[in-house]
Design goal:
With about 160 residues, the protein is of the alpha+beta class. It is about 25% helix and about 25% strand. It contains five helices and seven strands; from the N terminus they run βαααβββαβαββ. The longest helix has 15 residues. It is globular and about 40 Å long. The N terminus is likely disordered.
């Protein structure tokens, strides 16, 4: 049995994940991350059951991946739509929850949106993620009502300020 603790008694330093532009080769991994997310279990499962993040989607939008520097394992991703400015997708892998990946992606999104000249980004959140978006400074703007059969529940809407 090997240990993750060195002779000094400390855990080895792990490099921060790399945030990079998604490529068509990432499509299958991003689709799997969406479809297997524990955040979409139970009543939320139908929304992602057939969801696909295809190479065409990655080509058409600004999709960024947080990947482990050692093995390029996908830890999370987001998709930014510029017109109108909106966070279309954001997922963090179940095993990476609580490691700061979501905050890393939001920071990157703010930088990317700023470079594009945006002052804010709309977020229509998955209800269980509402607390996370509030914690990163997103401001509540209302509620997006359910739209059956695609979405069966109301969702909180936010504006994420970009820049100073």
């Amino acid at each position: 049995m090997t240990s993750a603790i060195t002779k000094s008694g400390r855990r080895p330093h792990r490099a921060a994940p790399l945030v990079r532009r998604a490529t068509a080769r990432d499509a299958h991994r991003l689709t799997r991350l969406v479809r297997t997310s524990r955040a979409y279990e139970g009543p939320y499962a139908p929304m992602v059951a057939g969801y696909r993040v295809g190479p065409d989607y990655i080509e058409a939008h600004r999709v960024f991946v947080a990947a482990d520097r050692g093995d390029d394992r996908v830890l999370g991703f987001y998709a930014l739509i510029l017109q109108p400015p909106e966070l279309d997708l954001m997922f963090v892998a179940d095993e990476a929850q609580g490691l700061g990946i979501g905050r890393l992606l939001i920071g990157h999104l703010r930088e990317e949106a700023g470079r594009a000249g945006l002052t804010g980004v709309r977020i229509v959140a998955h209800p269980p993620a509402e607390g996370f978006y509030r914690s990163v400074g997103a401001e509540p703007t209302g509620t997006v009502r359910a739209n059956p059969p695609a979405v069966l529940w109301d969702r909180p809407e936010f504006l994420l300020p970009v820049g100073a």
